[in-house]
Write a structure and sequence with these properties.
- By secondary structure, this protein is α+β, with helices and mostly antiparallel strands.
- It contains eleven helices and 18 strands.
Length: about 450
């Protein structure tokens, strides 16, 4: 891991901190219930992203330490990455007969959204108001995760907040002075480091400078969430490769709340969604170039242009045929059961179940052997996802999503801008857990430089 990768992650942390700053300002200035719900949702999502990014920094740091100690990672190439998509997410509800059919009792209304996390990529769904008139909570927009490995873990979390009809804006408290704000407006990782370290040293991290307090996870931003609507984790489920299915499938929830909770909703205990995956080995060309193919029937060698992609090695008579989108003259099937061997400067592709063997030759033969073996390995690792190309809808932009806020440009958009905030801006203090993790990361990094 290079310092450049560290700086890229730190820049992502900085962007999330600026987004959180804008959301907190919006929450303090909210005069409408829907606006406050959206702001609190943004705060929760930003905190989750920041913690995920800091966890990635710690993993990168450990990899650097192991590499300096001479323990190199495995040289075996990992399988190809891919794209995973979740769409048409539906959560069925189970209202009591007296509530739904007879329409009796107090109207229980909650604001609900989902956080979907895969690695350090975290997406949030739209916000939906739920009461007894709904039998299902639906999030139809597809959510895409790129650069995903076959061992991915996609966690879906359902958050709920009890909605009060008589919403009253919270008075804005005095702005806290902080040296953190001026430094977070710049893209320099050093300034971010100095600001977070100063915050930690000044007593924000309990337990001293040894960083051991990072193992304790206090509630995130209690001062901020006390000012507005509170979201609580209602249920969660972790999806993996074996859950991928080219169609709708039901997945069991782990419930984290009881019926006595004010934010409770009568869940069936499961959700239904379409989880699909597209490995890059099926959608992109792995390798292409001139080859020689031995024609068994004629006993002669023929010059071809080979293209390895998907589940076949396509053999064209020339590169021009490929550019004119003509069909390949020969198509060699490649599956996870295919084997490759090298003999007398030739490449033999053995098809499974005793089918024919194709013999090829190339000037860069080792490159083709390596590409074919890695391609077969990727097909095997992606399992059912590599059998057929699953259809995947493109993710919709944020502007096309439905929202509880009616105005196309809210106060949040006016406060948060892509440019750096002005000098002297004072965002709210980061949570103890966020400060502790980042401080601990920089302490390890600083100590390692002392010995180099």
């Amino acid at each position: 891991m290079s310092n450049t990768q560290d700086e890229e992650v730190l820049q992502q942390v900085e962007r999330e901190v600026r987004m959180r700053e804008g959301a907190s300002k919006l929450l303090a200035a909210c005069s409408q219930r829907d606006q406050a719900l959206e702001a609190s949702k943004t705060l929760l999502a930003c905190n989750t992203r920041i913690l995920a990014l800091l966890t990635q920094l710690q993993r990168m740091r450990k990899a650097q330490i192991l590499q300096r100690a001479g323990r190199r990672p495995s040289e075996e190439a990992p399988p190809c990455e891919g794209t995973v998509a979740v769409s048409d997410l539906r959560i069925p509800l189970m209202w009591k007969d007296s509530e739904y059919f007879k329409n009796k009792g107090e109207l229980h209304r909650c604001a609900v959204f989902c956080l979907l996390q895969c690695g350090t990529t975290i997406h949030d769904t739209e916000l939906v108001l739920v009461d007894r008139t709904l039998t299902d909570i639906c999030f139809e927009d597809p959510v895409l995760f790129n650069n995903v490995t076959p061992d991915f873990q996609l966690r879906v979390e359902v958050y709920s907040s009890c909605v009060e009809d008589d919403f009253s804006p919270v008075p804005v408290g005095p702005k806290k002075a902080s040296r953190l704000g001026g430094s977070l407006g710049c893209s320099s990782g050093k300034k971010i480091r100095a600001a977070f370290e100063s915050a930690a040293v000044c007593g924000s991290v309990s337990g001293g400078r040894d960083g051991r307090s990072a193992s304790v996870s206090p509630p995130l931003l209690p001062d901020l969430f006390a000012r507005g609507p509170k979201y609580h984790l209602l249920a969660h489920v972790t999806l993996r490769l074996h859950h991928v299915h080219n169609g709708f499938k039901t997945h069991d929830f782990s419930l984290t709340a009881s019926e006595e909770s004010p934010f409770w909703l009568p869940l069936y205990g499961s959700m239904c969604c379409r989880l699909v995956a597209q490995p890059l080995c099926l959608t992109q060309t792995v390798l292409s170039g001139p080859l020689r193919l031995k024609m068994e029937e004629e006993g002669v060698w023929r010059n071809i242009f080979g293209v390895l992609r998907g589940k076949s090695l396509d053999c064209y008579q020339s590169q021009e045929d490929l550019q004119t989108e003509r069909k390949p003259s020969v198509q060699i099937s490649i599956t996870k059961e295919t084997t490759v061997s090298e003999s007398h400067l030739c490449l033999a592709v053995h098809l499974p179940t005793g089918e024919a063997t194709h013999v090829l030759a190339a000037s860069d033969l080792p490159r083709w052997i390596l590409a074919l073996r890695h391609h077969i390995f990727s097909l095997a690792e992606w399992k059912q996802c590599a059998e057929d190309l699953m259809k995947m809808e493109p993710a919709k932009s944020c502007s096309s999503r439905k929202s509880l806020t009616v105005k196309p440009r809210s106060l949040f958009h006016e406060i948060v801008s892509p440019c750096c905030p002005t000098e002297g801006a004072a965002p709210p203090d980061l949570s103890l857990e966020i400060r502790a993790r980042l401080w601990h990361y920089y302490k390890e990094r600083r100590d390692s430089h002392k010995w180099n």
